[in-house]
Amino acid sequence: MTDLHRLSIRELSEGLKQAQFSSRELTEHYLKRIAQIDPKVKSYVTVTAEQALAEADAADAALKSGNPHALAGIPLAHKDIFCTQGIKTTAGSKMLDNFISPYDATVVAKAKAAGLVTLGKVNMDEFAMGSTSESSYFGATGNPWALDHVPGGSSGGSAAAVAADLAPIATGTDTGGSIRQPASFCGLTGLKPTYGRVSRFGMIAYASSLDQGGPMARSAEDCAYLMNVIAGHDAKDSTSINKEVDDYVANLNDTAVKGLRIGIPKQYFNVAGLDADVKARVEESLKKLEEMGATLVEINLKMTEAYVPTYYLIAPAEASSNLSRFDGVRYGYRCENPVDLMDLYKRSRSEGFGAEVQRRILIGTYALSAGYYDAYYVKAQKVRRLIQQDFLKAFENVDVIAAPSAPTTAYKIGANLSPTEMYLGDIYTLAVNLAGLPAINAPVGFAKDSLPVGLQLIGNYWSESQLLSIVHQYQQNTDWHTKRAAIAEENA
Ligand code: GLN
Protein backbone atom coordinates (compact mmCIF):
# COMPACT_ATOMS: atom_id res chain seq x y z
CA MET A 1 0.00 0.00 0.00
CA THR A 2 1.46 3.36 -0.94
CA ASP A 3 -1.15 5.57 0.67
CA LEU A 4 -1.12 4.41 4.28
CA HIS A 5 -0.20 7.96 5.31
CA ARG A 6 -3.56 9.20 4.08
CA LEU A 7 -5.53 7.10 6.56
CA SER A 8 -7.13 8.61 9.66
CA ILE A 9 -6.46 7.15 13.10
CA ARG A 10 -9.82 5.36 13.01
CA GLU A 11 -8.95 3.83 9.62
CA LEU A 12 -5.48 2.87 10.80
CA SER A 13 -6.90 1.25 13.91
CA GLU A 14 -9.44 -0.74 11.89
CA GLY A 15 -6.91 -1.68 9.20
CA LEU A 16 -4.48 -3.00 11.79
CA LYS A 17 -7.17 -4.98 13.61
CA GLN A 18 -8.41 -6.51 10.39
CA ALA A 19 -4.81 -7.30 9.42
CA GLN A 20 -5.09 -5.34 6.14
CA PHE A 21 -1.54 -4.22 6.94
CA SER A 22 0.79 -4.76 9.86
CA SER A 23 2.25 -2.21 12.22
CA ARG A 24 5.67 -3.07 10.79
CA GLU A 25 4.47 -2.21 7.26
CA LEU A 26 2.89 1.00 8.48
CA THR A 27 5.97 1.97 10.47
CA GLU A 28 8.32 1.17 7.57
CA HIS A 29 6.09 3.27 5.33
CA TYR A 30 6.42 6.28 7.63
CA LEU A 31 10.17 5.75 8.16
CA LYS A 32 10.66 5.70 4.38
CA ARG A 33 8.70 8.92 4.00
CA ILE A 34 10.75 10.52 6.78
CA ALA A 35 14.03 9.45 5.13
CA GLN A 36 13.00 10.87 1.75
CA ILE A 37 10.89 13.90 2.59
CA ASP A 38 12.07 15.15 5.98
CA PRO A 39 15.44 16.44 4.68
CA LYS A 40 13.31 19.16 3.02
CA VAL A 41 11.03 19.82 6.01
CA LYS A 42 13.50 19.20 8.87
CA SER A 43 10.84 18.35 11.40
CA TYR A 44 12.70 15.52 13.19
CA VAL A 45 15.64 16.07 15.53
CA THR A 46 16.00 12.32 16.17
CA VAL A 47 14.49 9.42 14.21
CA THR A 48 14.25 6.24 16.28
CA ALA A 49 13.94 3.73 13.44
CA GLU A 50 15.28 0.71 15.27
CA GLN A 51 13.15 1.21 18.36
CA ALA A 52 10.12 1.98 16.19
CA LEU A 53 10.43 -1.31 14.31
CA ALA A 54 10.85 -3.26 17.56
CA GLU A 55 7.77 -1.54 18.99
CA ALA A 56 5.89 -2.26 15.76
CA ASP A 57 6.73 -5.96 16.01
CA ALA A 58 5.56 -6.02 19.62
CA ALA A 59 2.32 -4.29 18.57
CA ASP A 60 1.83 -6.81 15.77
CA ALA A 61 2.16 -9.62 18.29
CA ALA A 62 -0.37 -7.92 20.57
CA LEU A 63 -2.73 -7.37 17.63
CA LYS A 64 -2.62 -11.08 16.82
CA SER A 65 -3.16 -12.20 20.38
CA GLY A 66 -6.55 -10.62 20.85
CA ASN A 67 -7.76 -7.47 22.62
CA PRO A 68 -5.20 -4.75 21.86
CA HIS A 69 -5.60 -1.04 22.69
CA ALA A 70 -7.37 0.97 19.96
CA LEU A 71 -4.10 2.67 19.02
CA ALA A 72 -1.79 -0.36 19.18
CA GLY A 73 0.64 -0.31 16.29
CA ILE A 74 -0.02 3.30 15.21
CA PRO A 75 3.07 5.51 14.91
CA LEU A 76 3.47 8.94 16.47
CA ALA A 77 6.11 11.63 16.96
CA HIS A 78 6.90 13.25 20.31
CA LYS A 79 7.86 16.87 20.75
CA ASP A 80 11.49 16.84 21.92
CA ILE A 81 10.42 18.29 25.26
CA PHE A 82 9.05 14.95 26.53
CA CYS A 83 11.70 12.82 28.22
CA THR A 84 12.29 9.49 26.53
CA GLN A 85 14.31 6.84 28.28
CA GLY A 86 17.42 5.91 26.31
CA ILE A 87 16.71 8.45 23.53
CA LYS A 88 18.10 11.96 23.39
CA THR A 89 15.76 14.70 24.71
CA THR A 90 17.08 18.11 23.70
CA ALA A 91 14.26 20.65 24.20
CA GLY A 92 15.77 22.27 21.08
CA SER A 93 18.80 23.41 23.08
CA LYS A 94 22.56 23.05 22.93
CA MET A 95 22.25 22.76 26.72
CA LEU A 96 20.64 19.32 26.33
CA ASP A 97 22.23 18.22 23.06
CA ASN A 98 23.82 15.26 24.89
CA PHE A 99 21.01 14.57 27.37
CA ILE A 100 19.60 11.06 27.59
CA SER A 101 16.84 10.79 30.13
CA PRO A 102 16.88 7.88 32.59
CA TYR A 103 13.07 7.75 32.54
CA ASP A 104 10.04 8.32 30.30
CA ALA A 105 7.66 11.26 30.67
CA THR A 106 4.21 10.06 31.74
CA VAL A 107 2.82 11.01 28.32
CA VAL A 108 5.50 8.88 26.65
CA ALA A 109 4.95 5.98 29.06
CA LYS A 110 1.21 6.09 28.41
CA ALA A 111 1.74 6.13 24.65
CA LYS A 112 4.05 3.12 24.95
CA ALA A 113 1.60 1.26 27.19
CA ALA A 114 -1.11 1.79 24.56
CA GLY A 115 1.17 0.21 21.95
CA LEU A 116 1.84 3.41 19.99
CA VAL A 117 5.07 3.31 18.00
CA THR A 118 7.58 6.14 18.51
CA LEU A 119 8.94 7.36 15.16
CA GLY A 120 11.17 9.95 16.81
CA LYS A 121 11.50 13.32 18.46
CA VAL A 122 10.51 16.49 16.65
CA ASN A 123 11.90 20.02 16.59
CA MET A 124 10.79 22.97 18.70
CA ASP A 125 11.81 26.42 19.83
CA GLU A 126 14.54 26.23 22.45
CA PHE A 127 12.88 25.29 25.76
CA ALA A 128 9.54 26.04 24.06
CA MET A 129 10.22 29.77 24.02
CA GLY A 130 9.13 31.19 20.71
CA SER A 131 6.51 31.17 17.98
CA THR A 132 8.48 30.06 14.93
CA SER A 133 10.67 27.08 15.98
CA GLU A 134 13.62 29.11 14.64
CA SER A 135 15.21 29.43 18.07
CA SER A 136 16.01 25.69 18.01
CA TYR A 137 19.72 24.89 18.29
CA PHE A 138 19.08 22.36 15.51
CA GLY A 139 17.95 24.97 12.98
CA ALA A 140 14.63 26.00 11.49
CA THR A 141 11.84 23.65 10.36
CA GLY A 142 9.93 24.39 7.16
CA ASN A 143 6.18 24.83 6.91
CA PRO A 144 4.95 22.02 4.62
CA TRP A 145 2.64 24.51 2.85
CA ALA A 146 5.60 26.74 1.91
CA LEU A 147 9.01 25.52 2.96
CA ASP A 148 10.48 29.02 3.20
CA HIS A 149 7.92 29.84 5.91
CA VAL A 150 7.93 28.81 9.57
CA PRO A 151 5.58 26.11 10.87
CA GLY A 152 4.92 28.22 13.98
CA GLY A 153 6.11 27.38 17.44
CA SER A 154 7.06 26.23 19.78
CA SER A 155 5.64 22.82 18.70
CA GLY A 156 6.63 23.55 15.09
CA GLY A 157 8.26 20.16 14.45
CA SER A 158 5.10 18.36 15.62
CA ALA A 159 2.95 20.47 13.29
CA ALA A 160 5.27 20.16 10.30
CA ALA A 161 5.65 16.38 10.73
CA VAL A 162 1.88 15.83 10.74
CA ALA A 163 1.18 18.35 7.96
CA ALA A 164 3.78 16.69 5.69
CA ASP A 165 2.36 13.25 6.55
CA LEU A 166 5.58 12.25 8.28
CA ALA A 167 3.59 11.14 11.35
CA PRO A 168 -0.15 10.57 11.67
CA ILE A 169 -0.29 12.27 15.08
CA ALA A 170 2.10 14.07 17.39
CA THR A 171 2.34 15.32 20.93
CA GLY A 172 2.83 19.02 21.57
CA THR A 173 2.93 21.35 24.54
CA ASP A 174 1.23 24.70 25.00
CA THR A 175 2.41 27.30 27.52
CA GLY A 176 1.06 30.30 25.65
CA GLY A 177 -0.16 28.93 22.33
CA SER A 178 2.46 26.40 21.25
CA ILE A 179 -0.08 23.76 20.19
CA ARG A 180 -2.74 26.06 18.73
CA GLN A 181 -0.57 28.50 16.78
CA PRO A 182 1.54 25.89 14.90
CA ALA A 183 -1.67 23.92 14.27
CA SER A 184 -3.10 27.12 12.79
CA PHE A 185 0.01 27.83 10.68
CA CYS A 186 0.09 24.25 9.33
CA GLY A 187 -3.64 23.61 8.79
CA LEU A 188 -4.08 21.10 11.63
CA THR A 189 -6.33 20.45 14.58
CA GLY A 190 -4.64 20.89 17.96
CA LEU A 191 -6.07 20.78 21.46
CA LYS A 192 -4.67 22.55 24.52
CA PRO A 193 -6.38 20.77 27.43
CA THR A 194 -7.45 22.27 30.76
CA TYR A 195 -4.43 22.84 33.04
CA GLY A 196 -3.97 19.62 35.01
CA ARG A 197 -5.63 17.25 32.52
CA VAL A 198 -2.39 15.89 31.03
CA SER A 199 0.57 15.05 33.27
CA ARG A 200 3.59 17.33 33.12
CA PHE A 201 5.87 14.69 34.65
CA GLY A 202 8.94 14.35 32.47
CA MET A 203 7.88 17.26 30.25
CA ILE A 204 10.78 19.70 30.48
CA ALA A 205 9.42 22.71 32.36
CA TYR A 206 9.17 26.17 30.81
CA ALA A 207 6.55 27.97 32.93
CA SER A 208 5.04 25.39 35.26
CA SER A 209 1.77 27.16 36.06
CA LEU A 210 1.01 27.47 32.32
CA ASP A 211 2.54 24.36 30.66
CA GLN A 212 0.19 21.70 29.32
CA GLY A 213 0.66 18.84 26.85
CA GLY A 214 -1.85 17.91 24.19
CA PRO A 215 -2.51 16.28 20.81
CA MET A 216 -1.81 17.65 17.31
CA ALA A 217 -3.44 15.86 14.39
CA ARG A 218 -5.31 16.22 11.12
CA SER A 219 -8.78 16.16 12.64
CA ALA A 220 -10.67 16.48 15.91
CA GLU A 221 -11.39 12.76 15.79
CA ASP A 222 -7.66 11.96 15.55
CA CYS A 223 -7.00 14.34 18.48
CA ALA A 224 -9.70 12.57 20.51
CA TYR A 225 -7.95 9.23 20.02
CA LEU A 226 -4.65 10.61 21.31
CA MET A 227 -6.37 12.41 24.20
CA ASN A 228 -7.81 9.06 25.30
CA VAL A 229 -4.23 7.85 25.71
CA ILE A 230 -2.51 10.83 27.34
CA ALA A 231 -5.18 12.41 29.60
CA GLY A 232 -5.55 11.50 33.25
CA HIS A 233 -4.35 11.91 36.79
CA ASP A 234 -0.73 11.26 37.63
CA ALA A 235 0.53 11.05 41.19
CA LYS A 236 3.95 12.13 39.90
CA ASP A 237 2.58 15.58 38.91
CA SER A 238 1.14 17.41 41.90
CA THR A 239 -0.83 19.79 39.63
CA SER A 240 -2.44 16.96 37.73
CA ILE A 241 -6.13 16.72 38.63
CA ASN A 242 -7.74 13.59 40.01
CA LYS A 243 -10.94 13.81 38.01
CA GLU A 244 -12.60 11.21 35.86
CA VAL A 245 -11.39 11.23 32.25
CA ASP A 246 -13.90 11.35 29.40
CA ASP A 247 -13.88 8.85 26.58
CA TYR A 248 -13.18 11.58 24.04
CA VAL A 249 -13.81 9.33 21.04
CA ALA A 250 -17.11 7.90 22.31
CA ASN A 251 -18.22 11.42 23.26
CA LEU A 252 -17.83 12.80 19.72
CA ASN A 253 -21.31 13.65 18.52
CA ASP A 254 -23.14 15.52 15.80
CA THR A 255 -25.34 17.54 18.12
CA ALA A 256 -22.70 19.81 19.67
CA VAL A 257 -23.35 22.82 17.44
CA LYS A 258 -27.15 23.08 17.50
CA GLY A 259 -28.13 25.62 20.14
CA LEU A 260 -24.47 26.37 20.95
CA ARG A 261 -23.85 29.93 22.16
CA ILE A 262 -20.54 31.20 20.78
CA GLY A 263 -19.12 34.33 22.37
CA ILE A 264 -17.46 36.81 20.02
CA PRO A 265 -15.19 39.12 22.03
CA LYS A 266 -15.55 42.54 20.47
CA GLN A 267 -11.96 43.45 21.44
CA TYR A 268 -10.52 40.45 19.54
CA PHE A 269 -11.68 41.39 16.08
CA ASN A 270 -10.36 44.95 16.31
CA VAL A 271 -6.80 44.08 17.25
CA ALA A 272 -4.25 46.10 15.27
CA GLY A 273 -2.27 43.65 13.18
CA LEU A 274 -5.17 41.25 12.55
CA ASP A 275 -4.71 40.26 8.92
CA ALA A 276 -7.79 40.95 6.77
CA ASP A 277 -7.77 37.46 5.21
CA VAL A 278 -7.41 35.76 8.59
CA LYS A 279 -10.33 37.80 9.87
CA ALA A 280 -12.42 36.93 6.80
CA ARG A 281 -11.76 33.17 7.03
CA VAL A 282 -12.52 33.11 10.75
CA GLU A 283 -15.75 35.05 10.20
CA GLU A 284 -16.76 32.65 7.41
CA SER A 285 -16.21 29.69 9.72
CA LEU A 286 -18.38 31.34 12.35
CA LYS A 287 -21.08 31.90 9.72
CA LYS A 288 -20.90 28.22 8.89
CA LEU A 289 -21.31 27.30 12.56
CA GLU A 290 -24.27 29.68 12.66
CA GLU A 291 -25.84 27.89 9.69
CA MET A 292 -25.29 24.64 11.57
CA GLY A 293 -27.38 25.96 14.45
CA ALA A 294 -25.08 28.01 16.68
CA THR A 295 -25.87 31.52 17.93
CA LEU A 296 -23.18 34.21 17.93
CA VAL A 297 -23.22 36.49 20.96
CA GLU A 298 -21.05 39.57 21.30
CA ILE A 299 -19.09 39.54 24.56
CA ASN A 300 -16.75 41.90 26.35
CA LEU A 301 -13.30 40.71 27.41
CA LYS A 302 -12.07 43.98 28.80
CA MET A 303 -8.67 42.67 29.94
CA THR A 304 -7.49 41.90 26.37
CA GLU A 305 -4.80 44.60 26.40
CA ALA A 306 -3.23 43.07 29.50
CA TYR A 307 -2.67 39.58 28.02
CA VAL A 308 0.74 40.12 26.42
CA PRO A 309 2.40 42.11 29.25
CA THR A 310 1.01 39.79 31.95
CA TYR A 311 2.13 36.59 30.23
CA TYR A 312 5.54 38.02 29.34
CA LEU A 313 6.21 38.68 33.02
CA ILE A 314 4.85 35.48 34.52
CA ALA A 315 6.27 33.07 31.92
CA PRO A 316 9.85 34.45 32.04
CA ALA A 317 9.69 34.63 35.87
CA GLU A 318 8.83 30.94 36.09
CA ALA A 319 11.33 30.13 33.35
CA SER A 320 14.16 31.88 35.15
CA SER A 321 13.47 29.72 38.18
CA ASN A 322 12.94 26.46 36.23
CA LEU A 323 16.03 26.90 34.08
CA SER A 324 18.33 27.52 37.02
CA ARG A 325 18.80 23.73 37.21
CA PHE A 326 20.87 23.81 34.02
CA ASP A 327 24.19 24.76 35.57
CA GLY A 328 26.71 22.46 33.94
CA VAL A 329 27.08 20.36 37.10
CA ARG A 330 24.86 17.29 36.92
CA TYR A 331 23.79 16.99 33.30
CA GLY A 332 23.61 18.95 30.10
CA TYR A 333 26.22 21.17 28.50
CA ARG A 334 29.39 21.91 30.45
CA CYS A 335 31.91 24.52 29.33
CA GLU A 336 35.50 23.47 28.78
CA ASN A 337 38.21 24.02 31.39
CA PRO A 338 36.31 26.04 34.01
CA VAL A 339 38.68 27.84 36.35
CA ASP A 340 36.30 27.74 39.32
CA LEU A 341 32.66 27.03 40.18
CA MET A 342 31.37 30.50 39.21
CA ASP A 343 33.15 30.26 35.89
CA LEU A 344 31.59 26.82 35.34
CA TYR A 345 28.09 28.20 35.97
CA LYS A 346 28.58 31.35 33.96
CA ARG A 347 30.18 29.91 30.88
CA SER A 348 28.06 26.73 30.77
CA ARG A 349 24.91 28.87 30.83
CA SER A 350 26.12 31.56 28.42
CA GLU A 351 27.40 28.99 25.95
CA GLY A 352 24.57 26.47 26.41
CA PHE A 353 21.53 28.77 26.13
CA GLY A 354 20.54 30.68 23.00
CA ALA A 355 19.68 34.39 22.83
CA GLU A 356 15.90 34.16 23.36
CA VAL A 357 16.27 31.88 26.37
CA GLN A 358 18.85 34.21 27.90
CA ARG A 359 16.56 37.19 27.29
CA ARG A 360 13.73 35.47 29.17
CA ILE A 361 15.96 34.41 32.05
CA LEU A 362 17.12 38.01 32.41
CA ILE A 363 13.58 39.44 32.25
CA GLY A 364 12.32 36.85 34.71
CA THR A 365 15.16 37.29 37.16
CA TYR A 366 14.64 41.05 37.07
CA ALA A 367 10.88 40.70 37.69
CA LEU A 368 11.51 38.41 40.66
CA SER A 369 14.33 40.38 42.24
CA ALA A 370 13.90 42.08 45.60
CA GLY A 371 12.58 45.58 45.07
CA TYR A 372 10.81 44.74 41.79
CA TYR A 373 8.90 41.64 42.90
CA ASP A 374 5.78 43.51 44.08
CA ALA A 375 5.78 45.98 41.22
CA TYR A 376 6.08 43.35 38.50
CA TYR A 377 5.53 39.74 39.55
CA VAL A 378 2.86 40.23 42.22
CA LYS A 379 1.05 42.79 40.06
CA ALA A 380 1.08 40.40 37.09
CA GLN A 381 -0.43 37.67 39.29
CA LYS A 382 -3.26 40.01 40.29
CA VAL A 383 -3.93 40.91 36.68
CA ARG A 384 -3.85 37.20 35.85
CA ARG A 385 -6.75 36.68 38.27
CA LEU A 386 -8.71 39.50 36.60
CA ILE A 387 -8.15 37.89 33.20
CA GLN A 388 -9.50 34.59 34.54
CA GLN A 389 -12.53 36.36 36.03
CA ASP A 390 -13.23 38.02 32.69
CA PHE A 391 -13.54 34.55 31.11
CA LEU A 392 -15.63 33.09 33.92
CA LYS A 393 -18.05 35.99 33.62
CA ALA A 394 -18.29 35.45 29.87
CA PHE A 395 -19.03 31.74 30.38
CA GLU A 396 -22.12 32.67 32.41
CA ASN A 397 -23.69 33.68 29.12
CA VAL A 398 -21.93 31.66 26.39
CA ASP A 399 -20.73 28.06 25.96
CA VAL A 400 -17.51 28.72 24.07
CA ILE A 401 -15.55 31.74 22.90
CA ALA A 402 -14.29 32.18 19.33
CA ALA A 403 -11.08 33.88 18.22
CA PRO A 404 -8.43 33.56 15.58
CA SER A 405 -5.53 31.42 16.84
CA ALA A 406 -3.07 33.94 15.45
CA PRO A 407 -3.45 37.38 13.87
CA THR A 408 -1.51 36.36 10.75
CA THR A 409 -0.57 33.33 8.68
CA ALA A 410 2.94 31.82 8.97
CA TYR A 411 5.91 34.21 8.81
CA LYS A 412 8.80 33.80 6.41
CA ILE A 413 11.82 32.00 7.84
CA GLY A 414 14.35 34.65 8.85
CA ALA A 415 11.75 37.46 8.97
CA ASN A 416 13.56 38.41 12.15
CA LEU A 417 10.70 40.01 14.01
CA SER A 418 11.72 42.04 17.05
CA PRO A 419 10.90 40.31 20.36
CA THR A 420 7.95 42.63 20.95
CA GLU A 421 6.54 42.06 17.45
CA MET A 422 6.86 38.33 18.02
CA TYR A 423 5.22 38.51 21.44
CA LEU A 424 2.28 40.50 20.02
CA GLY A 425 1.61 37.62 17.61
CA ASP A 426 0.60 35.56 20.69
CA ILE A 427 -2.25 37.92 21.63
CA TYR A 428 -5.03 35.35 21.02
CA THR A 429 -3.51 32.37 22.78
CA LEU A 430 -1.81 33.59 25.98
CA ALA A 431 -4.90 34.31 28.10
CA VAL A 432 -6.13 30.72 27.81
CA ASN A 433 -3.01 29.52 29.64
CA LEU A 434 -3.15 32.35 32.17
CA ALA A 435 -6.70 31.21 33.01
CA GLY A 436 -5.91 27.45 32.69
CA LEU A 437 -8.73 26.91 30.18
CA PRO A 438 -8.92 24.40 27.31
CA ALA A 439 -8.93 25.60 23.68
CA ILE A 440 -8.75 24.06 20.24
CA ASN A 441 -7.54 25.17 16.82
CA ALA A 442 -9.38 24.06 13.69
CA PRO A 443 -8.28 24.79 10.12
CA VAL A 444 -10.84 27.00 8.36
CA GLY A 445 -9.35 27.86 4.97
CA PHE A 446 -6.50 29.73 3.38
CA ALA A 447 -5.37 33.34 3.03
CA LYS A 448 -4.32 34.95 -0.27
CA ASP A 449 -0.77 33.76 0.35
CA SER A 450 -2.18 30.17 0.18
CA LEU A 451 -1.24 29.54 3.82
CA PRO A 452 -3.70 28.01 6.31
CA VAL A 453 -5.86 30.00 8.71
CA GLY A 454 -7.14 28.65 12.04
CA LEU A 455 -10.21 29.24 14.19
CA GLN A 456 -9.70 28.98 17.94
CA LEU A 457 -12.53 27.91 20.24
CA ILE A 458 -11.98 28.45 23.96
CA GLY A 459 -14.06 26.36 26.35
CA ASN A 460 -14.85 26.40 30.04
CA TYR A 461 -12.83 24.13 32.36
CA TRP A 462 -12.97 20.40 31.42
CA SER A 463 -14.89 21.02 28.20
CA GLU A 464 -12.44 19.07 26.01
CA SER A 465 -15.16 16.68 24.83
CA GLN A 466 -17.38 19.58 23.85
CA LEU A 467 -14.59 21.38 21.95
CA LEU A 468 -13.62 18.20 20.11
CA SER A 469 -17.27 17.52 19.24
CA ILE A 470 -17.89 21.02 17.89
CA VAL A 471 -14.84 20.82 15.64
CA HIS A 472 -15.67 17.23 14.69
CA GLN A 473 -19.14 18.27 13.59
CA TYR A 474 -17.72 21.28 11.71
CA GLN A 475 -15.31 18.88 9.98
CA GLN A 476 -18.20 16.60 8.99
CA ASN A 477 -19.70 19.59 7.19
CA THR A 478 -16.56 21.12 5.63
CA ASP A 479 -13.38 19.77 4.06
CA TRP A 480 -10.63 22.19 5.12
CA HIS A 481 -9.07 19.54 7.37
CA THR A 482 -8.74 17.15 4.41
CA LYS A 483 -6.56 19.52 2.36
CA ARG A 484 -2.93 18.42 2.09
CA ALA A 485 0.19 20.39 1.34
CA ALA A 486 1.83 19.42 -1.96
CA ILE A 487 4.77 17.87 -0.12
CA ALA A 488 2.41 15.55 1.76
CA GLU A 489 1.14 14.31 -1.62
CA GLU A 490 4.65 13.18 -2.57
CA ASN A 491 5.05 9.43 -2.41
CA ALA A 492 8.18 8.00 -0.90
N1 GLN B 1 5.08 31.93 21.97
C1 GLN B 1 4.89 31.84 23.39
C2 GLN B 1 6.22 32.01 24.10
O1 GLN B 1 7.20 32.17 23.44
C3 GLN B 1 4.26 30.53 23.76
C4 GLN B 1 5.20 29.38 23.74
C5 GLN B 1 4.60 28.11 24.26
O2 GLN B 1 3.38 27.94 24.34
N2 GLN B 1 5.47 27.20 24.65
O3 GLN B 1 6.29 32.00 25.28
Question: Could you give the topology of this structure?
Answer:
Blueprint: H1 9-17, H2 23-41, E1 44-47, H3 49-64, E2 75-79, H4 106-113, E3 117-122, H5 156-163, E4 169-173, H6 180-186, E5 189-192, E6 213-217, H7 220-230, E7 261-265, H8 276-291, E8 295-299, H9 307-322, H10 341-352, H11 355-368, H12 373-394, E9 400-404, H13 419-424, H14 430-435, E10 439-446, E11 452-459, H15 464-477, H16 486-489
Parallel strand pairs: 2-3, 7-8, 7-9
Antiparallel strand pairs: 1-3, 4-6, 5-6, 5-10, 9-11, 10-11
Helix pairs in contact: 2-3, 5-6, 7-15, 9-11, 9-12
The structure holds glutamine.
Q: Shape from CA axes?
A: globular
Q: What distance lies between the first and last C-alpha atoms, to the nearest angstrom?
A: 11 Å
Structural class designation: alpha/beta
Small molecules held by this entry: glutamine
| β-strand amount | 5-15%
Strand order of the largest sheet: 4-6-5-10-11-9-7-8
Q: Which residues sit in consecutive blocks of at least 5 with pLDDT less than 50? A: none
Order of SSEs: HHEHEHEHEHEEHEHEHHHHEHHEEHH
* Continuous helix count: 16
Total beta strand runs = 11
> What's the helical proportion of residues?
25-40%
What would your notes on this structure say?
The protein is α/β, with parallel strands linked by helices and about 500 residues long. It is about 40% helix and about 10% strand. It is built from 16 helices and eleven strands. Strands 4-6-5-10-11-9-7-8 form an eight-stranded mixed beta sheet, with helices on both faces. A three-stranded mixed beta sheet has the order 1-3-2, with helices on both faces. It is globular and about 65 Å long. The site of glutamine has 13 residues, from loops.
